[in-house]
Write a structure and sequence with these properties.
Length: 169
């Protein structure tokens, strides 16, 4: 029984068995299956019997692997009000569970993608924050996205009296 071995297929794709042939032209049958939605190693067994009743078998190993990184689907720009820590949620799609990390020390992110400030921002001190978010799947494939968080000034009247821009009646 002749055929290529091993075979590799990407997680979530369709596996089409390449089949096998015999050196004497006998019919080759196969058994086994491949679950392309589950990473792992699968075995397909091939058998053939010649006219004299001699049987031969061979196996093919099929490896289901994930080499595709997640795709970040949320915006790269967020807007948050000053004096609050909540920013928003970073989202990504992948066939496996995705976890998130963020660069720097001013922002933090949960493994589920909820983005917050470490310390509530003050618009008059700093009103634009930048960082890099990394989304990583269970197979260690990752993708990064640079994000910007713009801070809104809240209150209407300048909350920093030192600037002299407040109004009165």
């Amino acid at each position: 029984i002749l055929g290529d071995n091993p075979a590799t297929v990407e997680l979530g794709s369709t596996y089409t068995d390449a089949g096998a042939t015999s050196d004497g032209g006998e019919t080759v049958s196969s058994s086994g299956s491949v679950d392309t939605n589950t990473i792992g190693t699968y075995t397909i067994t091939y058998s053939a019997t010649d006219t004299a009743g001699n049987t031969s078998t061979a196996t093919r190993t099929v490896n289901v692997v994930d080499t595709t990184p997640p795709v970040i689907t949320s915006s790269d720009t967020f807007v948050a009000d000053e004096n609050q820590t909540a920013i928003g949620t970073v989202t990504a799609t992948d066939l496996q569970t995705v976890t998130f990390t963020v660069s720097g020390t001013e922002l933090q992110i949960t493994s589920g993608g909820v983005l917050t400030f470490v310390v509530a921002p003050d618009y008059e001190t700093k009103n634009v924050y930048t960082a890099t978010v990394t989304a990583t799947d269970a197979s260690s494939n990752s993708v990064t996205q640079d994000i910007t968080v713009n801070v809104n000034d809240v209150g209407g009247i300048d909350d920093d009296p030192g600037t002299g821009t407040g109004t009165s009646t």
